[in-house]
Amino acid sequence: MDCERDPDQVYEHYRTEGHLRPAAAAVRAYPEAQLPLLRQAPGRLRARARHQRRQLAAGPVHERSRQPAHGLHPARRHRGDSAPLELQARPRVMITVPLMFVVSTALRKRIRFAWQDVRIKQSRLNSHLNEAIQGMKVTQAYVQEKENYKFFDNMNTVNLNSWNRASALNQTFGPVIEITSAIGTLILFWYGSHLIQVGAITIGVLVGFANYVGNFWDPINRLGQMYSQLLVAMASSERIFEFIDEDPTVKESGRARLLTGIKGDVSFENIVFEYEKGRPALKGISLEARAGQSIALVGHTGSGKSTIINLLCRFYDPVEGRVTIDGTDIRDVTLESLRTQVGIVLQDTFIFSGTIRDNIRFGRLNATDEEVEMAARAVHAHDFIASLPDGYDTEVQERGSVLSMGQRQLLSFARALLADPAILILDEATASIDTETELKIQEALKTLLAGRTSFIIAHRLSTIRHCDNIIVLDHGRIVEQGDHAQLMLHGGVYRGLIDAQYRFLSA
After folding, report:
1. pTM over 0.70
2. SS3 category, 92
3. 3-state secondary structure at position 267
4. Exposure of 436 by Cβ count < 10 A (0-12 exposed, 13-18 middle, 19+ buried)?
5. pLDDT of 412-447, one tens digit each?
6. Phi/psi zone of residue 451: left (φ > 0), alpha (ψ -120 to 50 degrees), beta?
7. Cα 420 to Cα 433: distance, rounded to the nearest angstrom
8. pLDDT at residue number 29
9. H helices within 289-394, ranges in order?
10. CB of 100 within 8 A of CB of 217?
């Protein structure tokens, strides 16, 4: 984004749209944000929305836009007999205006860059604070509280120094204009005294014209104060505009249509994809899943399992090839209708603040209480929910920290079942649980997967033996595929992974 956005454009935007509109637009942009942008530290993204919104709200310059004009009208009263002085002195007084323009332009750039630096430092500080809070257990476990505090204190000091520099520059803007106006007034009195000596004007005329010049500079001083505040707001708005103007990696076609009433046939046709140019993550991937089939994706870390899922959800588009559902290229359908048909259950289940009922209902907001409870019963989550103090109305903290990993996963299963997608993705959904909970989850999975096309990523290979087709990936290529029995007989990569996992568990 152009960091030299025209101040007049920003001012006009504030004047016509209101000083809170850019911040509101940034909040609206979050649901449309693309994965590359969301890979940034959460603390930095939150800092953009929060601190930039506060800064914009703190200086509603559009409400003051009429004030400077008020000082111009009284000046007309003092013209009269001062015409000789005005005609001769005004050009000399106005010499200071270009000087003021040059100095203020130089200051403007320095002030804007200083406040931009403040925003960057503030974002880093918030990001570190977010990490420190989330990683508190690790910090305490390794007795690194003092080191963590020192690091935070250093970052805070850097942030404070940045604020002080920006504030000092900001405070110089008004005095520069006042000094310039004072120089203009001195020129006026110097030349006016000369005219008095030669009898061209009287002292009264000089005083009256001085008052006139004062009324000329007064609105300029006010504008200077407003402009100083505007520069601070512009530094904030640029971060918001950067977020809003982020070019999406995935765009809907102008002819995109709704994807409805699908059976669930999925096809990947000669897919080539790369996150970084020249470094392909997938190389010529072709696979098919018929409606109702379960497909397991296995392989070492970085083999391309999650990339296949990202392409199916259209978080990215392939460089070559295409992904189809029921024969329709997913690039030809709307993103909303596509993602309505695809449900995702992640290993790190996200639980929102609110009640358990609301978290399950997130899968389908118009679901009734009875439907919510039916979904919970179907995935064997009802028993533990009923044992909670307020049952389905129990308030959970941010990210469901009061619930166990297994309980959060059961809630995510209930949420996915309530959404009733035709295609379901399980991304390491049974990874971090104990054996007893795994048995419950396996029963829940049977209910959840029934009649749906499913893609399952799993490191615990015991959980995918029932799958119709197991795809073995290695460095972005499919090296084996078949059901569990076929791959075990083949004795290839999959058999090696099974044996290695068995030896590890038996050790």
Report:
1. no
2. helix
3. strand
4. exposed
5. 889 989 998 999 998 876 555 666 666 777 777 788
6. left
7. 25
8. 44
9. 305-312, 335-341, 356-361, 369-378, 382-386
10. no
Length of the chain: 507
Helices 83-93 & 145-197 angle (0-180, nearest 10): 140
- Model pLDDT for residues 9-61, shown as the tens digit of each residue: 544 544 444 444 444 444 444 444 555 554 555 555 555 555 554 554 454 44
Label residue 373 by pLDDT band (50, 70, 90).
Answer: very high
Residue pair 388/402 in contact (Cβ under 8 Å)? The answer is no
Look up residue 33 and give its DSSP letter.
-
At 252, give phi and psi (nearest 5°).
-75, 140
**Nearest C-alpha neighbor of 411 from the set 427, 392, 425:** 392
> Is-contact 127 46, C-beta < 8 A?
no
- H/E/C letters for each residue in 413-479? HHHHHHHCCCEEEEECCCCCCCHHHHHHHHHHHHHHHCCCEEEEECCCHHHHCCCCEEEEEECCEEE
Phi, psi of 401 (to 5 degrees): -65, -20
Q: Which domains does the chain have, with CATH numbers?
A: 7-62+83-244 (1.20.1560.10), 266-506 (3.40.50.300)
The conformation of residue 257, written as its DSSP 8-state character, comes to B
Q: How far apart (Å, rounded) are the C-alpha atoms in residues 180 and 173?
A: 11
Q: Which of the 8 DSSP states describes residue 330? A: G
Question: What is the residue type of 276?
Answer: E
